[in-house]
Amino acid sequence: MASKRTSFVTALSTAILGGSNTDEDMKEESSTAFMIDENDGIGQAITDVLQANLEKIPDDSLIKITHQLEFWRSQQKEHALSKEDLVDLTQRLVHAATWRSRLEDENAFRVPKVRFGRTEIQMPIITCGGMRLQQTWCPDNIPILSPNHNSVLAGDSQKNLKAVVECCIKLGLNHFETARMYGTSELQFIDALLALMEEGTIKREDFIFQTKVAPGNSFQEFEQKFKASWDHAKNSVLALMEEGTIKREDFIFQTKVAPGKTFHDFEQKFKASWDHVQKLGYIDLFSFHCVSKDSEVDFVLDEAEGGCYAFIKSLQAQGKIKHIGFSTHGTAETIMRMVNSNLFSYVNIHCHFFGSYHGEGTPDTKGGHGNLACVRRAKILDMGVFQISPFDKGGKLYKPSATVAKAIGHQLTPIGFAALHSWKTLGFHTVSVGLARPSDLDEVLEAACGFQNEKVLNYLEQAEVKLRNIAKEKLGTEWCEKGLVNLPSCYQKNTNGIAIGHILWLHNVCSAYGMFEFAKERYANLESAPWDDSKSYEANLEKMSGGNSGRGFQPDQDFTDVLKDHYNPELAKEKIAETHRWLKKGSKETFTQEERTAMGWEEAYSLTVWEEFAGDPSFISPAKVILQNLSGGWFGINNSRDRKQSLSKAKSLRSSIRSSFASTS
Q1: How far apart are CA 183 and CA 186, in angstroms?
Q2: Which of 26, 204, 434, 608 would bridge 645 by S-S if both were Cys, CB 3.0 to 4.6 A apart?
């Protein structure tokens, strides 16, 4: 029977994916070139540090350490590190990787907490995001295709997730964020938290649990999604309240509802949510979710009686809601309108050193562009500011370009740099980290340890200066100052939906910082925009997602009127077209490694030691997700092979380090 099932699934895999899904030999030789001594004693000094701490370094972290040491040991000329610097780097990486061995110490480091604006909530400066921990992207409430709950909760994915949650709690990182659209993430987080509570490891008041529900196309669809979400949480939470184990004031509950097309639509969505949430007494943080289009902003900001904001304010007056906020992927103009209304207590927003994602290249109403002015205005108004995706949408810094890594220097990792820049330079209260494994905390925890360290903050300032100077050198000072200013957003009709500022931003990060892989992923989103030229602009705008707005370059687009206010329209047109040539679908294969090196598009190293259980959402097709669940994880997406490869590599590395140490002892 088993062989027949395997044959059937293999055939199904071939039919759906267009090829066989055979088990490939993923064996990879571990590289230990950084330990080689060239009569300088460097290799031995590095080996001594690693050997002394080898038993405390987890497998994933050991691989990450070696990737970074290989990169820095290979640098030459002005970027070459001295023996002292390489040993110092090794010691710092080892210390960052062994935080779990110190968790039980009485004086162990705990994540700092800060006041979350006018909400007065004490928020950890790091938030645990739940989009990369789950077993599968397939929703857990789809008939036939949905994964078996018992199987998911008994698998390796759940063991890994529970380990992450337990580590976070011990660190004082007690804010967990997930969503219904993240497949089995919500189910798994709740099970892990409940298990830890039942074991007596944590109490309900020890953590903040947050989930999000997409609105759907109808009240019925939204109601079903919310009920599926709430069914996971309500029974366990209510039981604990009824038993007297916890009180309502012991935890913070946040939910989000997207604004509908009419007040009636919005009211129905909220009532469907409140029918369940009322059992908790009140909602701590209520968000208008992904308010990005002008029409959505108009709808939310309408304070007239009978409007959605007046409705939410009435619920706040009744004590059903404590704080009102919003999340957004919109343009800087729309975000500033929301912030300036002074109607909200907090905002979830993109704003990073390397750009503001969809807000980049859009007017900020202050003569500039991007979301920084919005963040500053929010701080002036005492709003809580939550940074979305600092290490992925902020530059894919877990796979940094060589240019970025070298500019930041060996004293900070690119992830550490981004976190410190967000807290100290931009003023964010918390940054969201999409964890896939405990070791993903290594770099951001190291940054949090330097939160008040003057020496570390000096390294931050130096790195910021170097990176800005690189941009001026590669792009020109005038382009840096004016290149993304006075551009229309994709919501302006004469652009025909083309995301002008977004495209020019991608050209900037490629040209200045070598972020080819990052830019290509972002441009793929523009190319996949659902735009139909046979339909009107208005019809396409209505269909376009506010969460991923705009489309890519179109050869037949006349940019004369679109760029009339730009300081150098011809240069802008050249860059837009060149970006498309670089990043369009299939272009990656057209560049040889030598060409990418010449362009400055080299990757420094990868901190992704094995793919997430659910896989990268940018590259996972629905067919693979379906096949994964139909086959019980044998086909489609099977990340157990990645983990086995990772374990094998770590074992080989340990053996090499021990052998090298023994040969010189």
Answers
A1: 7
A2: 26
